[in-house]
Design goal:
- The chain is of the alpha+beta class.
- It has two domains: about 45 residues, N-terminal domain of TfIIb, CATH 2.20.25.10; about 90 residues, K homology (KH) domain (GMP Synthetase, Chain A, domain 3).
- Helix content is about 30%, strand content about 30%.
- The strands form two sheets. It has a three-stranded antiparallel beta sheet with strand order 1-2-3, with no helix packed on it. Strands 4-5-6 form a three-stranded mixed beta sheet, with helices on one face.
- A hairpin with a 3-residue loop joins strand 4 and strand 5.
- The chain is globular, with a radius of gyration of 17 Å.
- The mean pLDDT is about 95.
Length: about 140
């Protein structure tokens, strides 16, 4: 397998810490969610970051497949809703509800390419069998 790129981020602290990207220097403040005893919500959290990463990766995979297969479309979007779940025996785990749309194509083409993108997406491959992913029609 040929490496395309590599990115590195480091988190300092935990839920109330900071994440820094090595290449760009981009920095993000973390804040513990109020549901977990947090005092404020001025920062982000791993669940929001996972939603952003997953939706961006799936949308990018969908775009890549549509473009390389010369499928004309108007626009697309992927909304990922990440749920943090607790299993008393195994601990925390994620579940994701996904709403993906491709505008300007038939429903059949939309459904076909969303499925192809799910199978193609590196995030989807990484979480397969570990995270319950539900697509919302």
């Amino acid at each position: 397998m040929k490496k395309i790129l590599e990115r590195t981020a480091t988190t300092y602290g935990g839920r109330d810490g900071e994440i820094k990207d090595t290449l760009s220097g981009y920095s993000v403040k973390l804040s513990k969610p109020m549901e977990m005893g947090g005092k404020n919500s001025i920062g982000t959290n791993p669940e929001e970051l996972f939603s952003m990463g997953y939706s961006a990766c799936l949308a990018s995979s969908l775009e890549y497949l549509l473009v390389t297969q010369h499928i004309a479309y108007e626009s697309l979007f992927v909304k990922a809703d990440t749920l943090l779940m607790m299993d008393e025996k195994t601990g925390f785990q994620f579940a994701i509800n996904v709403n993906a749309r491709v505008l300007g194509v038939s429903k059949a083409i939309e459904k076909e390419y969303i499925k192809k993108a799910y199978d193609f997406c590196p995030y989807s491959k990484a979480i397969k069998g570990n995270v319950e992913v539900t697509f919302i029609d």
